[in-house]
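Hello Y.,

Per our agreement to keep a running log of every chain we model this quarter, I'm adding this entry. I've kept the format consistent with earlier entries: sequence first, then predicted structure.
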Amino acid sequence: MIANTIKQKYMAPTLRQKIKLSHFFYLLLTCGFLSLFLFPYLYLMLSSFKPPREVISSTPAFLPSQFTLDNYLAMFNQLSIGKYFGNSLVTAAFATLLSVLLGALAAYGLTRFSSKLGNLFLIFTLGVRLIPLISVAIPLYRIIGEVGLMDTKLALTLIYTSINIPFVIWMMLGFFDSLPKELDESARVDGCGMLGAFIRIILPISLPGLATTAIFSFMLSWNDFLFGLLFTSTSAKTVPVGISEFLTAYNMDLGPMTAAATLFSLPVMLFSFFMQNYIVRGMTMGAVKE
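Predicted structure for the entry above:
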């Protein structure tokens, strides 16, 4: 009895030390991977505060010799950043709203009314999502030009919506599958129709999944460069297309370009940071069907 007590007294600190060392090792490993992912962005952000001559220097440095806002001032002088940000925000926001609404309705119908036609539709949407976007750029260009929507925010909104809807459908299938069908039956007993049950019961419960899907859909639309380049020229030009104008065959303004890229990345990063709980809950909510 006494021997066991002495053994526990002197062996316990050694065990705690091993646990602390293992935690320290995992923390060090995590910090190492995190630094690998953050280093390019930190270098970009710090370069935006460097003097213009240091950004294009042949011997680059991680930290600026002095912090200056010259690159941001040059960016505002050379780029209509406010207009481009407005175009990107409007097209991405409306495309996200439409794709989440239509995709959620489609996913709800497919989970509640399973049929062979519905399964074929799912395979079709998956095939559409797997098609490289560059392969449909020319047909879309012809269609947009013939209907007279070239260089308009409506054209980008419709294109982003059509691209995001298959993604939303497949994302929301897992969330709606995890919800018992008894919820719909209880709502109908209380007098709700199918649409009423969807709006009043299913949507509030699926809020984490909707938020996660909306975030990814917004990011896909916000970061698009291909269709923004093809379908806009002046009026509806987005930020990624505007940033590319700093690189030409005769000029390379990397300083203002880093400033514009930093500003462009901040909204999505901040939004994702504050919505990370929804992202985690949404990604795990549809993982297991109860």
